[in-house]
Specification:
The chain is mainly alpha-helical. Helices cover about 85% and strands about 0% of the residues.
Length: about 200
């Protein structure tokens, strides 16, 4: 009985720790969103002009990909609680594949910006109005930071898959998968904010 209580206590601490981490991430991105809002308010025309160089199709595609990945991740938690380990592995594998798809699409986007000289410190970018320079600086900083979070999430899901294969994760010990999925939902929500800010400026 005491062992079960200890496991429950560890799970509770794990959940609290994850929520505290999520709060710090919200503060981090909240500050970046505030900075973006200030610069956009001061340079509305330049921000609009710069946004026309982004691919709305790519942004929309990545939004659909991430939302779908959040669904597969959430279903993985449900299947884990039901004790269906094989389905959990399948769903986490699908989430990893979707995350990789997101990064590939983003890689093509960044590649196009580099080809057109629209990256920080590029001579062509520095010849543009100040507002456009600020826009692309924020674009690379914020989407780059988000991409790092995607990579971290992929690493955690990979660790979860290994734990499932070795029997270290199961219905009685679901906290790692639950926290991984919670983190992934945060990654998804951040992108839901980034998408309209950079791609849908009117």
């Amino acid at each position: 009985m005491s062992g079960h209580g200890g496991a429950s206590s560890d799970a509770d601490r794990g959940r609290i720790g994850m929520w505290l981490f999520i709060c710090t991430e919200i503060l981090l991105f909240g500050g970046l969103f505030l900075l973006y809002s200030v610069y956009r308010y001061k340079n509305p025309a330049d921000f609009h002009a710069a946004s026309l160089d982004l691919s709305r199709f790519a942004g929309t595609l990545n939004t659909v990909v991430l939302i779908t990945s959040s669904l597969t991740a959430a279903l993985a938690v449900h299947e884990l609680r039901e004790g269906r380990a094989d389905r959990v592995k399948l769903l986490l594998g699908a989430t990893l594949l979707l995350a990789l798809t997101f990064l590939v699409v983003k890689g093509f986007e960044w590649g196009a910006k580099f080809e057109h000289g629209l990256y920080p410190s590029a001579p062509h970018l520095l010849s543009l109005p100040k507002g456009q320079i600020l826009y692309f600086g924020l674009y690379f900083a914020m989407t780059g930071l988000h991409a790092i979070h995607v990579l971290v999430g992929m690493g955690i899901f990979g660790f979860c898959l290994r734990g499932l294969s070795k029997g270290r994760i199961g219905p009685e010990r679901p906290i790692l998968v639950e926290n991984a999925v919670l983190f992934w939902h945060l990654v998804d929500v951040i992108w839901i904010f980034l998408f309209p800010l950079f791609y849908l400026i009117s």
